[in-house]
Design goal:
406 residues; alpha/beta; five-stranded parallel β-sheet; 14 strands; 40% helix; 19% strand; Arginosuc_synth; Arginosuc_syn_N; EC 6.3.4.5
Length: 406
């Protein structure tokens, strides 16, 4: 690959991406544009601007954007319509943020005339795949630079030496090994590495970033009502809110009640297993609520087919194929299923658990007349079940007859 002339860097303002910024300048002699996304990670982002300027980036080449609403509206919500869980448990908090970051990197490259983008993902993880597959799906001619796969800064000591050599400020707590690595956005917090690397050891309590330990959560349960329209949450306790505001509120409630902690050993796309502690308080509540409203508004055929598609859909997101045609095909089917998934769910939050306790909808398929234990006024003729059972038993009876002959 020829040396790039201008590079758009996914920049957090932290030590690693600041080293990458300077490395791009020294290695290629290129102009660097920085992009910092506010995905709801809970950190002040303006210091990233000051850090970038300190490292010689022109003010017009520093992009800091609040993309929280777009993140929830266009990425999180479509995913939650599918009830997506990777390997049956993981709510895909990191996975779903990467295509949005890549999208903006590619768009900013086009706006600024840059011929390359760069990211800080290592060569061992999934994020390198997610960033790059998304970028190539949006611009097949874009160059992607992944310094962790290219440079010789292979240890913390070498990184610190490079930073000192180039006058990159180093926080005191960055000179030693951090106890674990954290990635956060509005949907979740992910912690992994170092103190968490041995799956036989229980994660220490100090790992938790946004969720109260269930043991320390309030002793009294709390009720919350979530209203849906076409599969998306639109209101909490009757108050209409924007997508990001809803997730923020649910995060507060879930965090307070110790909801959404997951200790998972997962299979990375690159082939290895890794252990992570995921905190997804609002997402855990949202999943339960969405399942609750689907129970009364989605027919069995649609619901069961949708559930059978979900593992494949979740795997596509986890592996970085958000912008693939197969994900878009599945999304079209999922969105079709959600046309009448509207109504309200009441949930009980208590010491690490969230449970649906009531649900109602004008689109409900639930018929009390058909399921009542009392007189059903002719709504259902129980003698019909006899022929239904006989027809369904025919195949089984023929198989049993053959088995007896054998």
């Amino acid at each position: 690959m020829s040396a790039p002339k201008k590079v758009v860097l996914a920049y957090s303002g932290g030590l690693d991406t600041s080293i990458i910024l300077k490395w791009l300048q020294t290695e290629y002699g290129c102009e660097v544009v920085t992009f910092t996304a506010d995905l709801g990670q809970g950190e002040e982002l303006e210091p990233a601007r000051a850090k970038a300027e300190l490292l010689g980036i022109k003010p017009e080449n520093i992009y800091i954007e609040d993309v929280r609403e777009e993140f929830v509206r266009d990425f999180v919500n479509p995913m939650f319509r599918a009830n997506a869980l990777y390997e049956g448990q993981y709510l895909l908090g990191t996975s779903i943020a990467r295509p949005l970051i890549s999208k903006r990197l590619v768009e900013i490259a086009e706006e600024t005339g840059a011929d390359a983008i760069a990211h800080g993902a290592t060569g061992k993880g999934n994020d390198q795949v997610r960033f790059e597959l998304a970028a190539y799906a949006l611009n097949p001619d874009i160059k992607v630079i992944a310094p962790w796969r290219l440079w010789d800064l292979t240890s913390r000591t070498k990184l610190i030496e490079f930073a000192e050599q180039h006058q990159i400020p180093i926080a005191k707590n960055k000179r030693g090994e951090a106890p674990f690595s954290v990635d956060a956005n509005l949907l979740h917090t992910s912690s992994e590495g170092r103190v968490l690397e041995d799956p036989a050891e229980e994660a220490p309590d100090y790992v938790l970033q946004r969720i109260t330990r269930p043991e320390d959560a309030p002793d009294a349960p709390e009720m919350v009502e979530i209203t849906f329209e076409k599969g998306d949450a639109v209101a909490i306790d009757g108050e209409a809110m924007s997508p990001a505001t809803i997730l923020t509120k649910l995060n507060e409630l879930g965090g307070k009640h110790g909801i959404g902690i997951l200790d998972l050993v997962e299979n990375r796309f690159v082939g290895m297993k890794s252990r992570g502690i995921y905190e997804t308080p609002g997402g855990t509540i949202l999943l339960e609520a969405h399942r609750g409203i689907e129970q009364i508004t989605l027919d069995s055929g649609s619901g069961h087919l949708k559930d059978s598609l979900m593992p494949r859909y979740a795997e596509l997101i986890y592996n970085g194929f958000w912008f693939s045609p197969e994900r878009e095909m599945l999304q079209a089917a999922i969105d079709k299923s959600q046309e009448r998934v509207s109504g309200t769910v009441r949930l009980k939050l208590y010491k690490g658990s969230v449970r649906t306790v009531a649900r109602w909808s004008e689109q409900s398929l639930y018929s009390e007349a058909h399921v009542t234990f009392e007189e059903d006024a002719g709504a259902y003729d129980q003698t019909d079940a006899q022929g239904f059972i006989r027809l369904n038993a025919l195949r089984l009876k023929l198989l049993a007859t053959r088995k007896r002959r054998g």
